[in-house]
Amino acid sequence: MLGFLLEILGLALCSYVAILLLADLYLILVHLSRSKAELAREAELGQVGRGAEPKICVKLPIFNEGRSVAPAIDALCQLDWPRDKLEIMVLDDSTDDTSAIVAERVAHWRAAGLQISVLRRSHREEVKAGALAAAVDQTDARFFAIFDVDYRPAPSFLRLTMAALLADPKAAFVQARLDFRNRDRNLLTRAQAIELDTFFAYEQAARNWAGVPMTFNGTCGVWRREAIEQAGGWSGRSLVEDQDLSFRAFAAGWRCRNLVSVSAAGELPESFGVLAVQRTRWGAGTAQAFNDLSWRLLHHLRWHQAVIFALLAQFYAAISLLLGAIFVVAAVTLLVDARRGLCILLAFLAVAVLLVVLKTSGAALATSVQGRRVGIGFLRDIVGMWVMELALLPVVGLALVKGYLKHRLVFDRTPKSGR
Could you tell me the pLDDT band of residue 52, with boundaries at 50, 70 and 90? Predict the structure, then answer.
């Protein structure tokens, strides 16, 4: 009897994972059918013309970034936007010599005629979200561009992203695609790069084209002030303040625009230890955000969009735990009833193959849409990606558990090399 019950449980979990993966099948079809037309639409948006620029506040939240901060400030100060309509704000919560570097670069650019300032807090309450919230009242700008310290936007970044935001008065934010300067540093960075390319250039692109809510990525995007205020402002209630605000904005009736053809390059973790710190924060934050998710946003979607969003939300909030649970159930069942245990293992293998095929197909679409070659190098990096995913499975699974069990967690920043 016990073997029978375990078999039912194992097969039910496998079936649940297979159902969640239907969302990827849908996104693949969307990407195949709409990528050419949507990229053409992006090209048609062009750039914001001279003389039509609204005021923008560019925000750079930092904490003990060291040598990374100087090139970050320099890149933001070279954005192509009228000097009387461009305000740059460094949100410095640092407790080390980073503040001295900030002061020197701010003085340099202020002397060059830029509106640039530093906002320092005496505490780190709600960390990045708290700094962003505190900065809102320090400017009258109606648009906010946000960058993490390791990203270097091209001078044309604001003209391209603002063209998309101004074209849609109901767009809360425009998100550019994240790229990576050190993608070819080692096997680990190549594996991360193709994994994140898949997320940004395949999944987020297809979600946006299909009208399925996607998240702001925390950097390389421009927000409309009105949307932030209507959504309730920045909150540090989870470790993923970007995802939290995005979904609250969607629940308030806003939408967003993702740009595949506009990118900014950042930095990937170059060691597994640093990567584990990053993915622990992401995993715990995902669980927190899922707990607090405002499902009211489904009211603004068509039925099929709502279904796909729900499947994707559950996938990210549970997939590591589900795969681990299936493996444990299969192992226990093998001890109780070998035949039934083998049945679960075969179902598990089928689900794993389906997962690998769908995500690898998405990776190929992402690589192609970015103009990169799908060849031997792609296959090498895909193998590296799946090895990395396997190694991260217990890390992310444990992080999800922590996120579900704890209301407040420590924000561990991802160290940057500054290269």
Answer: confident
